Amino acid sequence: MEIENTSDEKKMEQPQQQSLPRRQKGGLITMPFIIANEALEKVASYGLLPNMILYLMGDYHIGIAQGTNILFFWSAATNFLPVIGAFVSDSYLGRFLTIGFGSISSFLGIVLLWLTAMIPQARPPPCNQFKEKCKTPTSPQYAVLISCFALMSIGAGGIRPCSLAFGTDQLNNRNRPKKESDIVLEKFFNWYFAATATSIVIAFTGIVYVQDHAGWKVGFGVPTILMFLSALFFFLASSLYVKQKATVSVFTGFAQVIVVAYKNRKSSFPSQNSNLGYHQKKGSSLSQPTNKLRFLNKACIIQNPQDITPDGEASNPWALCTVEQVEALKSLIRVMPLWSTSIMMSINISQGSFQLLQAKSMDRHITSGFQYPAGSFGMFTIIGAVIWIGLYDRVIIPLATKIRGKPVKIEIKTRMGLGLLCSFIAMVVSAIVEHVRRKEALASGYLNNPEGVVAMSAMWLVPQHFLNGMAEALTSVGLTEFLFSELPKSMLSVASALAGLGLAVGNLLASFILSTVDNLTKRGGKVSWLSNDINKGHYESYYWLLAIMSSINLFYFILCSWAYGPCSDEGFFKVRDEREEDLKEEELTSLGIGDKNGGEKFKEQEV
């Protein structure tokens, strides 16, 4: 009997051993791999940009205008493709595969760029374009160069829109208490943005320094190794990741609304006595669309009761949309004019190629034995943004709150306007500094010597970088907060994508402006404002043109701001405060004091 009991116990133990749960995927253990992937990709890609115009001019014999245009198109593609990457990730591949393909593409692009420095046949023969006529790149050489930029842009389009969201996927544990989940998520965000900021600082200083002192072979080789490590770290943790499947993207919903509204353009709106009405999402409080942009409302009109399934869903989403889809597209259309005002700031900030040539022609000595790298002056833009954010958050707001005796917050649209004003002033300062630099160069006899260094400190370029940093901190941060507060919660990915899209449009317009100015000013055999010879050109006139355009953009912003009307710019902070008050009321109610209907009041206010 004892033997039988023992065997029975073994039989009972076997299922228990088999039913032991496997290790849950995701969690904090995956964070170092995801953060390393994003951070190393940024060091590799951002480190290539500051000095790239020097590589194009010196090794490929490409002029300043044409070279800057190439960089504009590269930046535009890098900023636009994340929108495509987000759509592909959400609708088809999922975030893991999108990041994986992006990492491989970026690595291949940087390897190809490194090979152009290693293989002499990949470039035109060496020569000094300021002293002799140089051969231009052949078609195959051009094709290889453009392929490098294309592969890196595709890679950025796969990594950047998905990295943060993929990290969030790893931390979404339903079994974890909400308070603990918020703490873990906050910790991830802090480390993620700290790593991103650090990577950009390293790119603008360390990588640029290596390129200046060790040449292009080593200068491109270091980013190649870093990008290899970025891809390696990401794939090493493949078995640990939570890999969510692709779902329908919000961009698909926008397309459905436009298509269905066009199909139903001849349909009439439902009357009050009609049995048919508008199709709403199950459990939604929106029963009918607003009257703004009314023509889109036809996308959610129920033409036939059979268009809706028994569970309340549309049988064909390309024939019937929900009220929520229609209102989401309306909210996007409504914010676009104010969003477009930030494009001019993007144009101004993207003038790094000219500022690099200015810095190289000025005295960059910090000490007698150390020169500040010309390509690292962009760091002052980042420093300006950080200083302003610190002053605003830690000094200006607390001081204003103390003086007024109540919480103070500068309105979002006011901050955006101040940022555009800073951008305008930055261009004015740029024009004045370049006017003084060129005057000094001509006085020193450097008219035909663009490589001559004038007796003027390059630190005079710092104020314009600081102003650009303040402009970005005010306008970009304000715009992000504006989009997050004005767009529905389901469109947060769209809000994030619009920021990158603004930079992409800015790069394309900057390229158009540059080409137009170059072509118009060199007519009749004249020297172009944007000549390769910085002392023969008139960069200060180009800056004055951008300053005039920035002033016009300021008036455009004021008009758009007035047309938009009041916005819920304090929505996030207001809800947070109300929830805190509601929790306090619930605590008092549980103790038998306070208004027992407080919770209901909060729900009414929230709706």
UniProtKB/TrEMBL annotation:
Disordered, as annotated region: 1-21
GO function terms (MF aspect): transmembrane transporter activity
InterPro entries noted in UniProt: MFS_trans_sf, POT_fam
Record membrane topology: Multi-pass membrane protein
Cellular localisation: Membrane
Transmembrane segments: 70-89, 96-122, 142-167, 188-210, 222-242, 338-357, 377-395, 416-433, 492-514, 542-564
Single GO cellular component term: membrane
PANTHER family: OLIGOPEPTIDE TRANSPORTER-RELATED (PTHR11654)
The family this protein is said to belong to: Belongs to the major facilitator superfamily. Proton-dependent oligopeptide transporter (POT/PTR) (TC 2.A.17) family.
Name recorded for this polypeptide: Major facilitator superfamily protein
